[in-house]
Specification:
The protein is an alpha/beta fold. The chain has two domains: about 45 residues; about 90 residues, Alpha-Beta Plaits, CATH 3.30.70. It is about 40% helix and about 15% strand. A five-stranded mixed beta sheet has the order 2-1-5-3-4, covered by helices on one side. Strand 3, helix 3 and strand 4 form a beta-alpha-beta unit. The chain starts with 13 loop residues before the first helix and ends with a strand. The relative contact order is 0.13.
């Protein structure tokens, strides 16, 4: 006895369903990878942009005018002569005799020497500090000694200065 063959539409083909499910899962995984990778890429690019902006902001650029350049604070001129200004010389580099040599340099410029001793700790570079009211004298000493770092007195008590108005800490 012959049996008629079923119509092609009536046959259930399980491999097609499996293929559709596999394609759906693969598309979902691809989308998930793109979202994760895109997020990482955006974070990386944002970090690089922020780093570049910080470097540009900190870099000296004579051709670029900053907003703060309109608010220039003027450093007062020195009111006292060099021979009226006493300097405390501290050795901040640890080499024996360096403070005495530096004090001789300071004295040769016409300043009085308040005292010569060792700094409590070593410093990475030379520094000139000044008491309140002696900013002009501090800037002048910095120019005389070619020391770029000139700041108000910090980390020292006025009592430790004795009669000195300025402090010169010799670095390496």
């Amino acid at each position: 006895m012959d049996h008629p063959l079923p119509a092609p539409d009536a046959i259930v083909r399980p491999w097609r369903i499996a293929a559709y499910v596999a394609v759906g899962i693969a598309a979902f995984e691809l989308l998930l990878l793109l979202v994760i990778g895109g997020g990482k890429l955006v974070g990386f690019v944002a970090d690089r942009v922020q780093l570049a902006a910080q470097q540009q902001a900190l870099a000296p650029a004579p051709h670029r005018r900053s907003v703060a350049s309109h608010h220039v604070t003027r450093v007062p001129a020195a009111k006292r002569s060099r021979r009226q200004t006493a300097v405390l010389v501290l050795n901040g580099n640890g080499r024996t005799g360096a403070a005495a040599t530096a004090a001789a340099r300071v004295h040769a410029r016409g300043y009085k020497i308040g005292a010569v001793t060792n700094a409590p700790r070593e410093v990475p570079r030379s520094i000139v500090m000044y008491r309140p009211g002696f900013a002009g004298e501090g800037r002048r000493l910095g120019r005389d000694l070619r020391v770029r770092l000139v700041t108000p007195l910090d980390g020292m008590r006025a009592k430790a200065l004795g009669r000195a108005q300025l402090v010169f800490i010799l670095g390496p």
